Amino acid sequence: MAFDFTWLLWALPLAFALGWLASRWDLRQWRLEGRQAPRAYFRGLNHLLNEQQDQAIDAFIEAVRHDPDAAELHFALGALFRRRGDYDRAVRVHEHLLARADLSPRDRERAQHALAHDFLKAGLLDRAEAAFQALLGTRYDTEARLALLGIHERSRDWARAAQMAEALEGSDRGSFRLRLAHHRCEQAAALQRHGHTSEALALLEALVTRIPESARAWVSLAELRQTLGNTAGALAALESLCTHCPEHVPLVAHGMAQWSRLLERVEPTRQRLRDWAQHHAPSLDVTQALASLETDPAQGRQQYLHHLRQEPSLVAATLWLAGVPLGAADEDPLVRRALERASEPLKRYRCAACGFESRQYFWHCPGCQGWDTYPPRRVEEL
């Protein structure tokens, strides 16, 4: 039986027509989806500019649904989730990006960086640490080290914090010497609490040799020496502080006065404090220390008058009035108590970064967690 080729004349045009219709249908679908995705994207951008985060998130989710391969949309969506405080969804977005095999190395590092910040914002320090560790050696290396330094400080892992500060010292983010000194002082304090006094002493003595500009190192060394009964060594440490960190003398003026009286070395300390007062702005703490070194109370009160001539001060006036013998009027104690109460807030220290005030001087602000943000002067003197 002969094969009939006539049906091919009908099949070929029919197949061509069907293929053409299918391609047109796919093209229409592609164009439709392409129009929907940009429209959703621009709608989300409009909501974002108008600070309407919830509506922006909905629009970006719709855009991602139409174009699941768009990495930029995922990054925008993850950033919105994090800003909104929805850290769980932000983590899922960035983990989804990292799971993609077709992601470029640059976008992979970017997704890892975003994921690390998601964990950090959520307070998951262990997972944030692991995520930032993965960024070491990348273009986010310095930023990752800074974040790891903050994590180690928050977890009070001072040894690892010191190592990270050492690694950052050569970076372009400034000097980390004083921050390193704080870490070593914290380590020394921990050693002292656990009874390892000799190791703490050796650590602090090496620290002041390496970083003499650290006021805290000298103060910690002086306090430890005094604890061990070495008052002369403690006073010598504070005298070295006067040389290397003169702006912090008000913090140690009382200690210098007290220890110099114990060692009967009042005159050298008095002269040192007077020399400091001649070259710096008036300080209530230095004035009070000088007054305490005077054997005659009347001479001590003259120190407060001298301070008042240089700078009006309610605290200095209250201290001067405290040394005046009570008069015949019954109101004298009432007036003095009122002045003392009014001057009490002026004796506090205030963080220059966040404004947190306290009666105690802090090297590490409890409010903003900043180092060396407290000026070594009272509120009234700022």
Output the helix-strand order: HHHHHHHHHHHHHHHHHHEE
Radius of gyration from the alpha-carbon trace, in angstroms: 35 Å
Strand order of the largest sheet: 1-2
Q: So, the CATH homologous superfamily of the domain at 69-170?
A: Tetratricopeptide repeat domain
Number of strands: 2
Shape: elongated
| CATH-defined topology of the domain at 69-170 | Serine Threonine Protein Phosphatase 5, Tetratricopeptide repeat
Helix share bin: 55-70%
How would you characterize the overall build of this protein?
With 382 residues, the protein is an all-alpha fold. Among the domains are: 102 residues, Alpha Horseshoe (Serine Threonine Protein Phosphatase 5, Tetratricopeptide repeat); 35 residues. The chain is 70% helix and 1% strand. Strands 1-2 form a two-stranded antiparallel ribbon. A hairpin with a 6-residue loop joins strand 1 and strand 2. The longest helix is centred in the N-terminal third of the chain and has 44 residues. About 4% of the residues have low confidence.
What order do the helices and strands come in, and which of them pair?
Blueprint: H1 6-49, H2 53-66, H3 71-84, H4 87-99, H5 105-122, H6 125-133, H7 141-154, H8 158-168, H9 177-193, H10 197-210, H11 215-227, H12 231-244, H13 249-262, H14 266-279, H15 284-292, H16 297-310, H17 314-322, H18 332-343, E1 349-350, E2 357-358
Antiparallel strand pairs: 1-2
Helix pairs in contact: 1-2, 2-3, 3-4, 3-5, 4-5, 5-6, 6-7, 7-8, 8-9, 9-10, 10-11, 11-12, 12-13, 13-14, 13-15, 14-15, 15-16, 16-17, 17-18
